[in-house]
Amino acid sequence: MVKKKDGTWRLCVDYRQLNQMTIKDKFPIPVVEELLDELHGAAYFTKLDMRSGYHQIRMFEKDIPKTAFRFHNGHYEFLVMPFGLTNAPSTFQSLMNEVFREYFRQFILVFFDDILVYSSSWPLHLQHFRKTFQLLNKHSLCVKKSKWSFGAKQVEYLGHLISANGVAADDKKVECMKSWPIPKTIKELRDFLGLTGYYRRFIAGYGKIAKPLTDLLCKDSFCWNDQAQKAFNNLKLAMSSAPYWPCLILLSKALSARHQALSTYEKEMLAIVMAVKKWSSYLTERHFIIKTDHKSLKYLLEQKITTSAQQVWLEKMMGYDYEVRKVDEDREEEEKVLMAISGISTNLLDQVQLTWFTDPQLQNIIKEK
User: The Reverse transcriptase domain covers which part of the protein (predicted)?
Assistant: First the structure.
């Protein structure tokens, strides 16, 4: 028995042997970051939680005997889908996607049994709320009234605080990070990095800040020193001051020993490939601009391939429609536009000298002296 957040208990059965023999369902689980990005412009939120979500799905008759388990007073079988089955998460997410397919990512987000209805205005939110419950009623699905959060301007969803201002880390999680004791073992350190890593999108240079700590995860290298303590404190400070992000996403990663030996050109190229892969769902079939301060990367597609790594990276970029710009070029273009708009001229000295000859009063003063 496992105690849940609300104080109730959940029966968990050891299905490891059954899971090893089960053909895995590869149904895609939503990416949390992609779901949160859908909330741009929303101001009202209703959060719903399914009542014993898995237990609202009946087992196939022929599969019921496979769920059998032994208790102190006999053997039992599940008539509904239990926790612990390897395909239970995929099955449940597939059901939720099918139920809300018509409005999914329009004004409804679903991550397993967590449902979020979001709208830009109150009248619209009432309409969206009504449609959501019509779908739940149509498919005979029940939600837990005690865990409702109706028409709120700020809610906690998937470990984040959601509001019209944007997305921020959950205050409870931030407090947990701030009060985290100094790790004594690799497991404790891995738990801390796992928690902070979930919110790395909010921290500029997360990979660089956390590198002294991630280095300690290597085999036989856990030795807490001043450098690790400094990184530990800096990471706590960065997490405690993480702002709301309305749309911007930050990405960073500590380089492995093999990648640290690369040239600056190759490191920046690696960063581009990593970023494009990370945000592939946003960039596929869209034209986008890559800005860099490395001049040679501007000619990314024209340069001769000299290493196998470059060949692999360029192959990964081939399916995308992009152009590379040097940061300085954009700045120069912006300056030209601003000068054209404001009428600012760079030959100010020449203009001042010209006024000496065209201004009659100034000419009289010069002659008198």
Answer: 1-162
How far is residue 85 CA from its own chain's centroid? 28
Of 115, 96, 109, 133, the closest CA to residue 39 belongs to 109
Both tokens of residue 71? 């208790």
Structure confidence at residue 316 (pLDDT):
77
293-315 tens-digit pLDDT: 776 676 655 666 667 777 777 77
d(CA 273, CA 322): 12
pTM > 0.90: yes or no = no
Q: Is residue 90 scored above 50 in pLDDT?
A: yes
Ranges 42-51, 100-109, 129-138, 259-268: which has the least confidence: 259-268
Question: β-strands 160-163, 149-152: how paired?
Answer: unpaired
Q: Which residues pair with 45 in a beta bridge?
A: 118, 152
Beta strand 9-10 with 2-3: parallel, antiparallel or unpaired? Answer: antiparallel
In whole angstroms, give the CA distance from residue 363 to residue 103: 77
Q: For tokens 């104080």, what's the residue? A: 7
Q: How far apart are CA 248 and CA 61, in angstroms?
A: 49
In sequence order, the β-bridge partners of residue 167 are 162, 245
